[in-house]
Amino acid sequence: MIRQPETRPISQEQLVAEVKGIYAGLVMLESKCIEVDGAQNAQNENPPRLNNEQWQALIALHRTLLHEHHDFFLASQHPSASPSLRRLAVKYAMPARMWRHGIQDFLELLRHRLPYSLEHMLAFLYLAYSMMALLYETMPAEFEATWIECLGDLGRYRMAIEDDDMRDREVWTRVGRHWYSRASDKAPTTGRLYHHLAILARPNAVQQLFYYTKSLTVAVPFTRAKESILTLFEPIMADTQQRSSFDNAFVAVHAVIFIKKSFEELDASMPYFFSLLDDTVARLTRTWMEPGSYVAISNGNALLGFGDETSPLMKIVASSQQEDCTDVVMDGTASAKAGADVRTAFEKAVKLANKTDEIIFARSGDPNVLPYLHCRLAFMLHLSYHPEAMALVQDNFCWHLMALMLNSVLDNLPEDKTIDTSKFPRRDTGDRRPLPEDWALRGLLWTDRLFPSDYFDEKVDEEERAFEVPSMTDDRKRRVIYLAHHLRAQGDWFSFDENTKRFVVSPAYESAAVNKVLEVLDAASTGSMTLHGGTIAPPAGSADEDAAPPYVAPPSYVAPPSYAEAMLASTVVELRGPSA
């Protein structure tokens, strides 16, 4: 039998005395750190060069403060501590003070003295990261969210200063992304975390745009993202050559809508984006599933004015979620101009969303666009709960193409086309992970009623969330049909024929779609446009041929080659009669 060292129980009086002693020393060290960091940061415009010994002394001072904080947490959160003693850490904001005065201010000092301080900054980053990781592992769950976000911040600092080794930079980018994703799981409506994820998403411009816009359209928006997003927009807007790629063309359109200036630029940039869209989807096949959800969500956030409560849709949606909502009063020339710009931006956002829908929804039978359809249905369903908001977009929405795509989904369901709409579709056994786009939708203002409360309880690693398993294709089909049934129940836009098991657009919304289809068919009959298995493209050799390439079906495409022709012909028969 191995003898154990003798342990003595500690009394409440001893714990209280220990905490008081630690706190007194901690306050003295904290005051010294504030004084030293403040004095040094005041000289950032013309800073003196500190020698190695001075840097070592500063690191030692802040290391000692971190150790004092660690001792304070150990004592105040001791298993024998009384509830009042345990509450001291929250009462005196100890986690925030530890981060601010023990780590962040000193890191900012080191950052402003780069490159001369690089070696010391690396040493302190590793020290601080180790301390935060220790607290995360040993402290109660009450503080877990704080430690997780701090670890993400440290990973982001470490990534930002790595210029030499791109592999190290990528490693620390993944570290920061991991912790911020963990933090957003615990606080999915906190915009600050999505702002940080946007920074780590570089150079993926579409993903950056998604995270920036999401940070502004959650219940707790991060308003400073309105400034940070300009670092994404300005380089693309300043150099037209950068807009040649699909990603940058998409971002360029959003930049004009966000900034609410130079709307005339959309006359060229928006058609150019549309000309790239269909070909990009066809070329990327399954790899477009993730960016497809980002495109749909970003377009939805643009319709909400990127969280601007003076925007027509956002004003309505936000008012329904606030007990005290006061309209912004516009007066004066400047306010009138701003109001006109807001309305113009909304109109452009509507055009962007609708035209994107037309191009994507025309790809009936292509499973790679289902994440896009899923996200757009979720957005429209939320608007349907607000009739005033829905009235602003319903007349221009392409209900006809949406119904055609939904019917193609029904045709490819593996079982009976009846969907139980009384409960959210999810598996009872097996892989019950959320769909990849569910993580992107989570936390948005317009998805607060979309998911069951326990839907995200499954533990899924951040790197596995985007992984598409075969069973998800059918799960996604059931989901979009479920959302479609709930959407049709909210209004008269379309219905479901129980006999034919088809979605049917209501006559009031069919006529506009038919007229648009007839225009396309007439153009095709005169040779000015040709049909290519689900989309419309200019005739070979025309000046517009390069601008709008024909659709090239991916291997997984299951619709017949003449689907578009059949759809157009059936529509004409319905409108003109069999003799047409």
From TrEMBL:
Highest taxon of source: Eukaryota
One Gene Ontology cellular component: telomerase holoenzyme complex
One protein family per Pfam: EST1_DNA_bind
UniProt domain DNA/RNA-binding: residue ranges: 179-445
SUPFAM superfamilies membership: TPR-like
MF terms (GO), sorted A to Z: telomerase RNA binding; telomeric DNA binding
Biological processes, Gene Ontology terms: nuclear-transcribed mRNA catabolic process, nonsense-mediated decay
InterPro entries assigned to the protein according to its UniProt record, in alphabetical order: DNA/RNA-bd_Est1-type (IPR018834), Est1/Ebs1-like (IPR045153), TPR-like_helical_dom_sf (IPR011990)
Protein name, entry field: DNA/RNA-binding domain-containing protein
Lineage: Eukaryota, Fungi, Dikarya, Ascomycota, Pezizomycotina
